[in-house]
Amino acid sequence: MADFTKFPDLALRTYGGAVIAANDESFAEREALIRPGNPLFQAHTFGPKGQVYDGWETRRRRAPGFDWAIIRLGLPGVIKGIVIDTAWFKGNYPPYASVEACAADGHLAPVELTDWVEIVPKVALDGDAAHEFEVADPRRFTHVRLNIFPDGGIARLRVHGEVVPDPRFLTGLTIDLAALQNGATIVACSNEFYSTPANVIAPGLARNQSEGWETARRRDNANDWLIVRLPAPGRVAIAELDTTNLLFNAPGWAAITATDSRAEIPPTTAKWFPLLPKTRLQPDTPHRFRLDSPRKITHARLDIYPDGGLSRLRLLGTLTEKAERDLTTRYTTLTRTHAPGQVDGAPRTLRRTGT
Fold it and tell me: Start and end of every Allantoicase domain (predicted)?
């Protein structure tokens, strides 16, 4: 698996992504492109339009041209890599595809999107395979357009990248400093046997256990933990620990500590101080704690005792004034328009893997 897949899928439906337009979806709906999870397939399952596919599939083209779908990223940011997955499409996959991207300010209709930039040039595809492409363009994008030549089916489109939030909705406000959509990331975790710890900072509420973080059962005297890196230094006023959907596997207790470190992952020598002392938790319950800590932090560590799961972690607070300035400067740099050819490095095919 390519290194860029460690970044979140900016287009994922559960992260707010949407397929806002497509020129054709005769056989299978466009919305499937950004569904969470791996594509499913059951042979000899036919509907009124033919074999049912968990993907986007267009009709057989009888005229020149190509088919396309436009995806609005739920989490705008810098795209690090693209995965085009043709899983289960064996005799009806497109032989070629390309991907373009654009940046839009505000809430534009599909026909109003302009200044498309090619981030994956026209490349050959195989059937029933995942194709990974690194992207070198350093700009922040809000939309992507998948083009397939001339027609066929794509199961999933994954747009992995670094979240770059709009600072206008962060500065001077109380925000969730642990939110993925605000640029926070999970940088370390003791255990992710059942589900990824990144789920605890995802947008919205978890619909079931699989959309939270759950560890294996411990048979020792230790405990599980994760570390979240804030989008920028800030001060936390309220912590929310949500065990919703975790009826018999919620942690018995939890604690939160914090540190101020320039490193992405704090070193072992980092000095951690308490934000929330070890506190009893209840199953299937949202918990709120007022902290009002005056200390600046860059990372928070959540310890759960001894193991179990958590639906969501929220750390409500404010950014420091310097952090607000730095985020605004970075945003301005990444949204600056580049002249054609100014970006170095073409996308590179990494591998194709069959289902």
Answer: 16-163, 183-318
